[in-house]
């Protein structure tokens, strides 16, 4: 299945702990150094042109989903695990790691704005004794990988007790900025000071590190929770004049966050990309004729107040990576139909389309039969190859790339990633 012998994940980590960083030899064509734009096509050792594409994996830190494997590990163990993920990306002939560096209004670098993330030491605000983001950038670039820094703008905590936050946490210093909803705490996106602050906090990483992209996930206003109210009525009364309804005002708040962040990134470092990975459905066609032929229970425009299609058409972002987390033929949200829809949305724009892939579903017995077939994901890549607008894929998530429950990732690599390529730029 694989074209090369693969080091074991644990053994790779152990080697780094011991101070040994092995040179990775690829079956196919390796390239050295950070992936920077050259303008020239890649060539395989056999002489044929290999189209540039993004091949990425998300590495999630919230709730220790991927990394670190547990809070409270030693700095050496944390670093070893992180480097093992980066080496795994090389082994799989990926070219991009999307590392979550601001999971809950905190930081995986020494930020002057927010406390250290609790997922490192187990205590929010406690210095882990090293710089994870700085290390990730350096180690990724030394292996020819891009490092996209993944931020969550508004989530404060996966609980509703402010007293559990670090004493210096901005959410404790500004309790009027925070709203509880669905068992979590969120910054209120309707407050201008909040919007300015979260931008400052995220852009600190752009100024200080040679990251290749700012990457956001699908969380803007929170996903709807039955029987719960996101109580921003007072904020709407204060700032919502001139809007026809609260929904339009909320969408404008999210638009402002996206547009302002895009402008500020380019002023700081014009070569840093800005990408967003939204839920896969903008609107159903039954709601809006411009929408997709889907019957999704969530629509980002209506439920998350995120006009993802609009951001593309206005050119505010450099790439979109919709999470098309369904199989080909899935009745409510068919991968094939959504792939076609998103391809049409980016057509004629300067926005790259990468596809978020649900590797985590492969082999999960709770998923439909299609996900029990190791070839399902490879078929996604085959299908996407028919669309010139699709410039790559990102797999969720790191631990699933490593364990590869039924060999679905092996199949993708064997079928499609036989040589290394640089991301499109």
Question: If you had to describe this structure to a student in words, what would you say it looks like?
Answer:
- With 425 residues, the protein is an alpha/beta fold.
- The protein is built from 14 helices and 13 strands.
- Helix 12 links the parallel strand 12 (352-357) and strand 13 (390-395).
- Helix 1 packs across helix 2 (75-91).
- The protein is globular and about 55 Å long.
Poorly predicted regions: 1-48
Mean pLDDT: 91
Specify Rg, calculated over alpha carbons: 21 Å
How does the major sheet shape up?
A: 8 strands, parallel, barrel
Number of helices: 14
From the structure provided, what is the oligomeric state, counting identical versus distinct chains?
single chain
**CATH domain topology:** TIM Barrel
Helix-strand blueprint:
Layout: H1 9-17, E1 42-43, E2 49-50, E3 54-59, H2 75-91, E4 96-102, H3 118-121, H4 132-142, E5 146-151, E6 155-157, H5 170-173, E7 178-181, E8 184-187, H6 192-208, E9 213-216, H7 233-239, H8 246-268, E10 273-276, H9 300-304, H10 308-313, E11 319-320, H11 335-346, E12 352-357, H12 376-384, E13 390-395, H13 398-403, H14 408-416
Parallel strand pairs: 3-4, 3-13, 4-5, 5-9, 9-10, 10-11, 11-12, 12-13
Antiparallel strand pairs: 1-2, 6-8, 7-8
Helix pairs in contact: 1-2, 2-4, 6-8, 12-14
What key phrases describe this protein's structure?
TIM Barrel; three-stranded antiparallel β-sheet; eight-stranded parallel β-barrel; globular; single chain; disordered N terminus; 14 helices; 425 residues; 13 strands; alpha/beta
């Amino acid at each position: 299945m694989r074209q090369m012998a693969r080091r074991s994940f644990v053994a790779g980590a152990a080697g780094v702990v011991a101070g040994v960083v092995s040179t990775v030899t690829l079956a196919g064509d390796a390239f050295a150094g950070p992936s920077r734009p050259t303008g020239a096509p890649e060539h395989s050792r056999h002489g044929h042109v290999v189209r540039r594409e993004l091949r990425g994996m998300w590495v999630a830190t919230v709730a220790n989903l991927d990394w670190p494997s547990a809070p409270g590990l030693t700095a050496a163990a944390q670093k070893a695990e992180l480097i093992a993920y980066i080496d795994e990306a090389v082994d799989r002939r990926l070219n991009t790691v999307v590392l979550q560096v601001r999971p809950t209004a905190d930081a995986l670098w020494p930020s002057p704005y927010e406390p250290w993330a609790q997922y490192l030491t187990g205590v929010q605000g406690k210095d882990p004794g090293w710089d994870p983001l700085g290390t990730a950038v350096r180690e990724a670039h030394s292996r020819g990988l891009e490092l996209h820094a993944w931020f969550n703008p508004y989530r404060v905590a996966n609980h509703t007790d402010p007293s559990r936050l670090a004493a210096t946490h901005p959410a404790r210093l500004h309790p009027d900025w925070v709203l509880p909803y669905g068992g979590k705490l969120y910054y209120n996106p309707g407050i201008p000071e909040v919007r300015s602050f979260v931008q400052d906090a995220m852009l600190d990483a752009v100024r200080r590190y040679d990251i290749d992209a700012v990457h956001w996930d699908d969380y803007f206003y929170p996903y709807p929770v039955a029987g719960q109210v996101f109580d921003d009525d007072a904020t709407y009364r204060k700032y919502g004049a001139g809007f026809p309804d609260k929904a339009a005002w909320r969408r404008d708040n999210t638009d402002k966050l996206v547009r302002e962040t895009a402008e500020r990134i380019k002023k700081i470092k014009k070569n840093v990309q800005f990408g967003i990975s939204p839920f896969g459905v903008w609107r159903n066609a039954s709601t809006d004729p411009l929408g997709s032929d889907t019957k999704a229970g969530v629509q980002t425009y209506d439920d998350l107040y995120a006009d993802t299609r609009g951001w593309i058409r206005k050119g505010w972002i450099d790439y979109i990576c919709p999470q098309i987390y369904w199989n080909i033929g899935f009745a409510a949200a068919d991968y094939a139909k959504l792939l076609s829809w998103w391809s049409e949305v980016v057509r004629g724009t300067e926005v790259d389309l990468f596809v978020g892939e649900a590797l985590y579903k492969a082999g999960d017995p709770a998923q439909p039969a299609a996900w029990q077939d190791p070839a399902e994901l490879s078929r996604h890549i085959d299908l996407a190859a028919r669309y010139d607008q699709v410039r790559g894929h990102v797999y969720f998530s790191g631990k699933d790339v490593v364990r590869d429950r039924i060999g679905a990732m092996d199949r993708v690599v064997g079928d499609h990633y036989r040589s290394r390529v640089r991301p499109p730029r």
